Amino acid sequence: MRRLALALMFVCGLAFGQASEIAHPDPAVEARLKSLAEELRCLVCQNQTIADSNAALALDLRNEIREQIAQGKSDDEIRAYMVARYGDFVLYRPPWKATTILLWVGPFALLALGLGILYATVGRRRVPGPEAPEGERRSAAEVESLLED
Amino acid sequence: MKALKFVIPLVVFAALAIFLALGLTHDPREIPSPFIGKPAPAFRLERLHEPAQTFSPADMKGKVWMLNVWASWCVSCRVEHPVLVEFSKRNAVPIVGLDYKDKREEGLQWLARFGNPYSLSAFDGEGRVAIDYGVYGAPETFVIDKDGVIRYKQIGPITPEALEEKILPLLKSLGA
Predict the structure, then answer these.
(1) CB atoms within 10 A of CB A136
(2) ipTM for this model
């Protein structure tokens, strides 16, 4: 068991070792890279961003972004480059367009629907219940005498 | 009004069940490629077997062809390989390989060992061309028409079913 754990650690170490980043990072470039990469989905491990994935592809894409930053491309241009290759799916903040309208509007529509139902239900309950029929009404003295029996 | 009280949850449940059932049939790893219907990105790379010679998609103008991204380290490519080798014997269309993030010797050895279905392989050791094609895992296969437009992308291994049901009819319709 222990040997297995050691072996696993070794293998993982190798895998992560591959993702060694560049030799002389430029803080300004790295900061922009970080802000960009945190909003881009890693295609290999889909619930991670390119910033925090160790996948080889994520590293390649980080280097690609570094290069494009060095070439003086704007953030929008770099995002457009990624979308042209991998589709809107790479964006963690999907654009506002016909195919994504349900995504953006859906939660608010559901909220409105829920509020509507709530309002209708509560409104119905507020209607005062019928008064007790006349015959049932007794004075306090009558109630007392009934209780004493 | 009373009946509605039972019908509404039933309808909501049915709708939810349908959505969830549909969700199960989708493979989240299959991302529709934005390249379909767009011209295949240009590149020029050394060939795997003859480093002195290069390959560019422009060389294939006027032909329907397939670009298959593979690598010697790629397990799924091994699975796909016999299908490609069989398919190449039909001589339907040229299959161009793109040896992705590989070492040249290992790629050559791999083809020598398992057979070479490719009319030629371009060598993309750095994986830069693959990024240009939006490749995020090997194998991936592009069907490219006579005008150099990408018409289909297979993500993952080409299965015999995908070949018969999707790729072959498409090749036929493209006039291969």
Answers:
(1) 7
(2) 0.72
